[in-house]
């Protein structure tokens, strides 16, 4: 289904059960101190403006400072189905991340243990198992580079709090703009160069294969690196 712009929304996919929206950086997925200006709120307004009495259910989250594809459900049954798919790992989650440090190898897999400190809202990586830590894994490939930056394509095998940010930081490869995890400078707009590039899954109601790709933000580093793909 073609993308479409409405009330600040870039809709990537929509059917009677689901909607997938390309979230801009800096917008929360769910309501917080933004006082209603969350992506969830904007999607709900989108349907109210059309006169549709649709309740939008939150299924999938990405960081406020990141961008990219976010999936919402339109019914309780759709929420239950796709939530179970996310838990079972049957939704493939693809991310793009920009770093100023070249990875040691152009492809690889990182298997670590991650623990969250809720007080400071930050996760920490250990390479050996320890109390309270959970296993986390991702696969990556170096897919583009410029004179200063490297673009990694990441298949997220587990979905833990700040997982990509923490695993990259642990290897001295902080994401561009991510000062919480070791980047030397912030981005001017407060974003980080982490993008939910795509979601792929078998549709739980009609069994059709679904593959959704989210265009990167209209920003110079993103545009330069994405043009190589």
Your description of this structure?
The protein contains four helices and twelve strands; from the N terminus they run E-E-E-H-E-E-H-E-E-E-E-E-H-E-E-H. By secondary structure, the protein is α+β, with helices and mostly antiparallel strands. It has a single domain, classed as Pseudouridine synthase, CATH 3.30.2350. Strands 1, 2, 3, 4, 5, 6, 7, 8, 9, 10, 11 and 12 form a twelve-stranded mixed β-sheet that branches. Strand 7 and strand 8 form a beta hairpin. The two termini are 22 Å apart.
Q: Rg to the nearest angstrom?
A: 18 Å
Shape verdict: globular
Cα(first) to Cα(last) distance is 22 Å
Q: Please trace the helix and strand order, writing H or E for each element.
A: EEEHEEHEEEEEHEEH
Q: Please, how many domains? A: 1
| Total of helices | 4
Main β sheet profile: 12 strands, mixed
| Overall pLDDT level | 92
CATH class: Alpha Beta
- What are the segments in which pLDDT stays under 50 over at least 5 consecutive residues? 1-7
Number of strands: 12
What fraction of the residues are assigned to beta strands by DSSP?
A: 35-45%
- Name given to the CATH homologous superfamily: Pseudouridine synthase
CATH architecture: 2-Layer Sandwich
Look at the helices and sheets and give the structural class.
alpha+beta
